[in-house]
Amino acid sequence: MPVAGILTGKTAIITGGTTGIGRAICLEYLRQGATVTVNHLGLDKDQPHLDSLIAEAEAIGKADANAGRLYHQAGDVRDPETGAKLVSLAVEKSSSGRLDICVSNAGICTFADFLTLSPDLLSNTVRTNLDGAFYVTQAAARQMALSQSPPGGSIIGISSISALVGGGGQTHYTPTKAGVLSLMQSTAVALGKHGIRCNALLPGTIKTQLNEEDLDRPEKRKYMEERIPLGRTGAPGDLAGPAVFLASDELSGYVTGAQLLVDGGLFVNLQ
Fold first, then answer.
1. Which domain of life is it from (predicted)?
2. Catalytic residue from among 71, 173, 248, 252
């Protein structure tokens, strides 16, 4: 007999939820019983990712009657209205009329030389990674604090180990991830009185579509694996369990303003 999951009855939103880390978190939330609404850009090139996610969600539902249901909505997180619309759809589809979990995950990373880095690349990276995180966090917090009784919820910002260390080819990217970490710390203070917990997940070297080409180079992969104490680069699924932990009031109800490294030990081995 299927057993109810840790997040049964909960409602979650995830930005950038059709690929990489966001997708892995989405699928685990569904397995744990949450109703999940994911945001995506809605581009033609992204349709296969959405189609395959829907198929996986349906398979999970067929295997477990207690699994959650998946919904999706297109929108650019750089637009403040995208977060508001995502929250509205999630609440509409929720059996409780609540929003319990927000995962701000959408982000971009293009390696570039600092001396030739274009203003357009800088602006696009900041607006997507930091502005987008702010807008969806604000939209989720407004729902959690002002539009449901009792108030409360869990907001998770996907930051990066890059928030803590420098990167010569990431001078436009690392400040945005430091910003996401700082955003979670500050909102933890601002929203604690509403029962809203805000925490950051800091992935290490996780193989996703953003860095797949780089990590497919044998010399780069060998270099990274030798620096990571656990001896391997991460997979998106490595973030799913920690994301469930931070989403669950039962497991992490007294955790807010925290940063959780999920890096195989890379940070403590940096020399």
1. Eukaryota
2. 173
